[in-house]
């Protein structure tokens, strides 16, 4: 059922939870920190002496007390309530199970022997959206990490003569990559929560999964683009243009 929850709704829940956690640690962090530290030490002491009755007692007292201590945090309460609201809302809206298409797994990858240093197309940015230029531009491999925002990469405005690499590690937000028809594609995508759409072949909701997809002639025909994405919560779309 979690796979049916819209990604943007999940992103809002997670970002608000992090904001509440931030303020909670700022104003009440001392008590929470020392309490968690003491209970953690108690649990560790019980685990080291778990063979004895006293060790078992200390271990389980520490585990239960630590769990109750975490559940008293307002951020954790909000997360649970938000997930329950989304769960029951999507349960009411769901009418049938989605169809999943299993990608064909391919083996092998080619190593790159040359390294070129130049000004990157994208900068590492924690907040805000980024996209490639609307006018023609010179291609340079992309290797970035980001926090919150969308990333749009349009390969129709550049020329790829050999192989290209797009590597994006992101927290919250969507990634859209537009690829010309004559370019072969390899996609390696992992996410905690989000939807992935690759051409007309794959369209599925993912929950703590990894997906690998290659076009039929990727290993033999050039040019090609290798796309590696890792997103905590967000949608990834690869489309022909």
From TrEMBL:
One GO location term (cellular component): membrane
Any Pfam family: LiaF-like_C
Domain of life: Bacteria
TM annotation in the entry: 12-45, 57-88
Location of the Cell wall-active antibiotics response LiaF-like C-terminal domain: 126-238
Record keywords, A-Z: Membrane, Transmembrane, Transmembrane helix
Organism annotation: Salipaludibacillus agaradhaerens (Bacillus agaradhaerens)
Protein name per its UniProtKB record: Cell wall-active antibiotics response protein
Matching InterPro entries: Cell_wall_LiaF (IPR016975), LiaF-like_C (IPR024425), LiaF_C (IPR047793)
UniProt entry tagged with the keyword Transmembrane helix: yes
């Amino acid at each position: 059922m979690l796979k049916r929850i819209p990604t943007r709704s999940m992103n809002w829940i997670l970002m608000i939870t992090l904001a509440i956690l931030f303020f909670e640690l700022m104003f009440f962090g001392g008590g929470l920190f020392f309490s968690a530290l003491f209970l953690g030490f108690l649990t560790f002491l019980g685990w080291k002496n778990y063979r004895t009755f006293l060790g078992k007692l200390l271990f389980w007292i520490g585990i239960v007390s630590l769990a109750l201590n975490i559940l008293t945090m307002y951020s954790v309460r909000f997360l649970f309530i938000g997930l329950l609201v989304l769960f029951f809302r999507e349960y009411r809206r769901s009418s049938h199970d989605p169809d999943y298409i299993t990608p064909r797994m391919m083996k092998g990858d080619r190593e790159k022997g040359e390294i070129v240093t130049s000004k990157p197309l994208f900068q590492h940015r924690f907040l805000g959206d980024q996209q490639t230029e609307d006018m023609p531009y010179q291609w340079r491999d992309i290797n970035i990490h980001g926090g919150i925002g969308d990333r749009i990469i349009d390969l129709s405005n550049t020329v790829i003569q050999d192989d290209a690499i797009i590597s994006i590690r992101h927290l919250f937000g969507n990634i859209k990559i537009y690829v010309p028809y004559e370019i072969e594609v390899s996609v390696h995508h992992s996410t905690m929560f989000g939807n992935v759409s690759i051409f007309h072949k794959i369209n599925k909701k993912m929950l703590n999964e990894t997906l690998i997809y290659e076009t039929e002639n990727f290993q033999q025909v050039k040019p090609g683009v290798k796309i590696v994405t890792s997103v905590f919560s967000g949608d990834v779309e690869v489309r022909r243009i």
